[in-house]
Structures are given as structure tokens and as C-alpha cells.
Design goal:
The chain is α+β, with helices and mostly antiparallel strands. The chain contains five helices and seven strands, in the order H-E-H-E-E-H-E-E-H-E-E-H.
């Protein structure tokens, strides 16, 4: 219910320059109690700052990580990378879960669509709205039986400021 409420009535954004590293680290730390999940976090050096609402971006990453944990039935490895790319930052979260059939991938970002029996089907819809509102992109690639990668790209703060956004 809280995810549905959040999706329907997004809180006022507090956009500011943000460092990606602490946001990713905070999102991963939330899952420290998941002893059967191993995180491999690889964050590049000198990543550009982005213009974002810190809490909103952290929540988007948490949604992606939670989906990965559920796809792996609560145990396995999740790899998170962040690197500078095209004047911005690319963040990828890869799980080694069940994967998603190709015909379902586009539907995963639609509100109320879910491959799970529980949940509201809003996690990835919220991620997509958050990232697109920041003039970024989100893509999902998956191979059934091997896993899924959700990739976010956000423009760097300097690039956005030069463009007048």
C-alpha cells in the first residue's frame, strides 16, 4: 500500500548535486541482514555528481536490489557497478536469478504488472519514473535461467547545468 501511495502521490523532490557512491552504499547496507546474499559492489573512481533527490534515488536502487533478491529466492550474488559514461553515471544491478522471458521485459515497467504473486507491481514503474524525471534512462536485460541486469544512466550534474536543466 505504501508503494502504491508513493507512486500515486510522489513527495516533493529536493533536487541537489549528489554523489552516487554513498547512495549506492546506503542502499546495499539496508540489506546487510540478508546473510545469504553476497554483494559485489564496484564503484568507479571520480564518478560525476548527478542532480537528484537523494532519498528518491536511494529508493529506486532499493527497489531494484529487492527485486533481484526475490528473483534469486533470497540467496545468491548481486553485482552492482557504477562508472562514468557519456558525461554521466551508469549504474548496473545484476542478479543471478530466474531471469525474465523477453516478451515480458517491456511490461515490467508498467504500473501494476508483476511476475510475482505478492507485491503491487510498482517497484520498477517507480524506478522508471524517477530516472526519466532526472533525464536519465533505464533498461533491463535478462536471460531466463541466468539472471537480470537493470541499468540506469543519469546525466552528470555539470552536463545538466550546462544544458540549462
Amino acid at each position: 500500500a505504501s508503494e502504491f501511495s508513493h507512486f500515486a502521490r510522489m513527495p516533493r523532490r529536493n533536487l541537489d548535486r549528489q554523489e552516487i557512491r554513498p547512495i549506492v552504499e546506503e542502499a546495499v547496507r539496508l540489506f546487510d541482514q540478508e546473510s545469504s546474499i553476497a554483494f559485489d559492489v564496484r564503484l568507479g573512481k571520480g564518478l560525476p555528481q548527478v542532480i537528484a533527490d537523494r532519498e528518491e534515488l536511494r529508493r529506486a536502487l532499493i527497489n531494484i536490489i529487492r527485486n533481484g533478491i526475490q528473483a534469486m529466492d533470497g540467496s545468491g550474488d548481486i553485482v552492482i557497478t557504477a562508472e562514468g559514461e557519456n558525461g554521466g553515471v551508469a549504474i548496473a544491478v545484476t542478479d543471478h536469478g530466474k531471469g525474465v522471458p523477453g516478451e515480458m521485459i517491456d511490461r515490467l515497467f508498467m504500473p501494476n504488472f508483476s511476475t510475482k504473486t505478492d507485491g503491487m507491481g510498482l517497484g520498477l514503474a517507480i524506478v522508471k519514473k524517477t530516472v526519466e524525471d532526472l533525464h536519465g534512462t533505464v533498461t533491463l536485460t535478462s536471460t531466463v535461467g541466468e539472471g537480470t541486469t537493470v541499468r540506469l544512466w543519469l546525466p552528470g550534474a555539470d552536463e545538466k547545468e550546462q544544458a540549462g536543466s
